[in-house]
Amino acid sequence: MTTPRKDRLLNALNLLGQRILRNIQTITDVFVVIALVCVIVITIKWTLSIEKETIPVDPISEPTPEIVIEEPEHVPSGPSDADETWSKQEHECLALNVYHESRSDSFAGRIAVADVTLNRVESRLFPNTICEVVKQANMRTDWKGNTVPVRGMCHFSWFCDGLSDEPMEADAYEEAVIIADMSLRGGWRGITEGATHYHATYVTPNWINDRGMVPVGRIGEHKFYRWH
User: Fewer CB within 10 A of the terminal residue: the chain, N end or C end?
Assistant: First the structure.
């Protein structure tokens, strides 16, 4: 038979064992719950990642990238480096010279007259502007006090022939304007091989025998010379 003291000890151990078992059961339940929560969280994340990959992206919702268009480098228009910039007055002077000197000549003959005019501008022996070259003449003062060219003493005869300089043939003058414009842009330059003088084929002026006057050839209704 057991003693009362021993019985009390066994009862105490029994109660302790039951408490331990209950605690163990509770801890196990906690771990089970934690494990279930982790599984649920992982499953939700995995599901969301799959849906994100499969849902199409609305192109309208995405910001449109800004397109930067670079401005092209500005290239100045007009004559090239080989040409000069001429005023409206210079154009008119050249066109009038082509018209009055060669309006009845061939196309090549009119281009040649323009070429000679510009050759004179480039020569150190003549004035530096087209209008000064075209209107080069011996000048006098008339009775009204105006400075006018001496008749028959001009480099280009039409400027001092006593007649009106206003073009009367519209078509011929329009063609002269075109020839002048193209010549000033560098077109057909050099056709006279540097000639600075010419005369009509039906005359023989004395100056062709001047020292340094070199014949170049005939173009249209004129013979051309280069003065060195």
Answer: N
